[in-house]
Amino acid sequence: MQFSTTPTLEGQPIVEYCGVVTGEAILGANIFRDFFAGIRDIVGGRSGAYEKELRKAREIAFKELGEQAKALGADAVVGIDIDYETVGKDSSMLMVSVSGTAVKTRR
């Protein structure tokens, strides 16, 4: 499965549009990890804990996106949009959502 933020794939003409597909992931944040991440942010360091959670959420969302596209018979998803948001009480959860158009290409 190929993923692209562009509307086309160079050298691979789109022969069929299969439909819009989405993937979402919501992950809770650990209170102690949040506390230490806040300290790192104050002193200007990067928050490895948050980066790891973002990466994990993005992987889950893309896996879901690919599974939906495959179920439609697609071999690629184009025009992908990725959004990140905090949700829940006190913004205690992280949501990653991806969407795009599932397509069949001629290789």
SSE topology:
Blueprint (H helix, E strand, L loop, with lengths): L1 E2 L10 E15 L2 H12 L5 H24 L4 E12 L5 E13 L2
Parallel strand pairs: 1-3
Antiparallel strand pairs: 2-4, 3-4
Q: What's this model, at a glance?
A:
With 107 residues, this protein is of the alpha+beta class. It is built from two helices and four strands. The model has no long low-confidence stretch (mean pLDDT 86).
Structural features, described:
Helix content is 34%, strand content 39%. The protein is an alpha+beta fold and 107 residues long. A four-stranded mixed sheet has the order 1-3-4-2. It is elongated, with a radius of gyration of 17 Å. The two termini are 13 Å apart. It has two helices and four strands. It has helices spanning 31-42, 48-71, and strands at residues 2-3, 14-28, 76-87, 93-105.
Q: What structural class do the secondary elements suggest? A: alpha+beta
Low-confidence stretches: none
Strands, count: 4
Q: Which geometry do the CA atoms define?
A: elongated
The fraction of residues assigned to DSSP E strands is 35-45%
The helix count comes to 2
Helix content: 25-40%
Based on CA atoms alone, the radius of gyration comes out at 17 Å
Mean pLDDT: 86
User: What's the assembly state of these chains?
Assistant: single chain
Strand order of the largest sheet: 1-3-4-2
Taking the alpha carbons of the first and last residues, their distance comes to 13 Å
Sheet with most strands:
4 strands, mixed
What order do the SSEs take from the amino end to the carboxyl end, as H and E?
EEHHEE
InterPro entries: UPF0145_dom_sf, UPF0145_YbjQ-like
Protein name: UPF0145 protein QWU01_14495
Family: Belongs to the UPF0145 family.
